[in-house]
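=== RUN LOG ===
request id: a7f3
mode: sequence -> structure
chains: 1
length: 167
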Amino acid sequence: MKARKPVLLIVWHSATGGAQAMAAAFAQGAATEAGIEVWLMNAQHAGPDDVLAADGYAFVSPEMLGSMSGLMKDFFERTYYPVLDRIQGRPSMLMVCAGSDGSGAVRQIQRILTGWRLREVAPPLVICTHAQTPERILAPKVLTAADIQKCRESGQALAAGLGMGLF
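=== RESULT ===
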């Protein structure tokens, strides 16, 4: 009988492309690890069954008005109670694409992940675009090569730990 590959679920939402680029780079890094199945899912399409089927998680959100995006909140609202007490101890990581410091979005999502009793295996990765005017906030985001590399390395590290059974 063939053993099932561990599944790493990456749930993301993006309004201007920054968080999407972070999630894609994270997935690219994770996919370099043999023996891991990587699911990259927009928050609008991910549901409780996806969360239950995964062995580890990455959550990627833009900072919007000092908090997580509404569609990420919608994802958590739709999935929180159906999976509560069924995924505790699984590894997770959080990433935020911020215009300022991202602390509000990080705090909100960490409270949810604490409620699920997930194990945070790395500090949150916050990429700051410094978008502070309406024009820059609404403009498509292009991340630096260094920021994309941080996301790839984070994906590779989480996938490697998941694959080796460290988490």
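=== NOTES ===
The chain has six helices and seven strands.
The longest strand covers residues 56-64.
=== END ===
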